[in-house]
Amino acid sequence: MEDELILERVDDVAILRMNRPAQMNSLSHSLLGRLWEAFGDLAQDDSVRCLILTGTGESFSAGGDMGVLKEWSESPPSLVYRQMKMVGEVVMRIFNFPKPLITAVNGVAVGGGCSLALCGDVVMASEKARFGMVFSRNNLGPDMGASFILPRLVGVLKAKELIYSGRIISAQEAHSLGMVSEVVPHEVLMERALERAKEMAKWAPQAVAFGKTLLHRSMAGASMEELLEMEAQAQAILFNCEDTKEAVKAFLEKRKPVFKNR
């Protein structure tokens, strides 16, 4: 059987391609398991400085696999709950990935696939991409973090409209709402994503990891006082790192710093 998740490397950039094109890269049990493993491995791989997540074929991801949806519709609530908790663990591993993450949305991103796309630090979309929180079309509520991420990007009122209606929107509308960082011609999506990833791979990796943690705590409702305390702790650690000393030295020598994640 063809691997449902393909890993490629271009220097210090990793590319993960969800590879179920005939099923619109819908999220099967096995694909979710592979995403869990891959994001865990890449988080620990110091040679990887930036990650691109995309799909093969004409879709980014159509969300939950229909076989899984059928299985859960015939299962007791306790089983669905346990399995959704495991799905949530996959989402948290992706959302909290400590390195810059680009989601390159090459086509349809609906349901859980849309939630997955919005986990990116940069969301790049082909002009052919389509986004939709289509859960309500199947009499389901939002999942895979949609109820957390979406209102923080587009505001509560627009999030209500998109989640309740299940309306599918264009890449251009998604960009205007703040769901997408950049819309590019379809044929140059991966070229542009790789170009952006190579730029991001030069960012200070420790600073990115701490910055992401602080922003996520802010999004989760941490108070100003709590964030000031966490910022102080982060700075105390970072000022003692080799990369910070390199940044100061580079500034004094009027050159760009070379970060080594140390």
Q: Which structural traits does this protein have?
A:
10 strands, 262 residues, 16% strand, alpha/beta, 2-enoyl-CoA Hydratase, Chain A, domain 1, 2 domains, 4-stranded mixed β-sheet
Task: Explain this structure.
It is a single chain. The model has no long low-confidence stretch (mean pLDDT 95). The chain has helices at 29-44, 66-73, 77-95, 112-117, 146-154, 156-165, 171-177, 189-200, 205-219, 224-238, 242-252, and strands at residues 5-10, 13-18, 50-55, 59-61, 101-105, 108-110, 122-126, 130-132, 168-170, 182-184. α9 packs antiparallel against α10 (224-238). The chain has eleven helices and ten strands. The chain folds into two domains: 5-200, 2-enoyl-CoA Hydratase, Chain A, domain 1 (Alpha-Beta Complex), CATH 3.90.226; 205-252. The strands form two sheets. The protein has a six-stranded mixed sheet with strand order 1-2-3-5-7-10, with helices on both faces. It has 262 residues and is an alpha/beta fold.
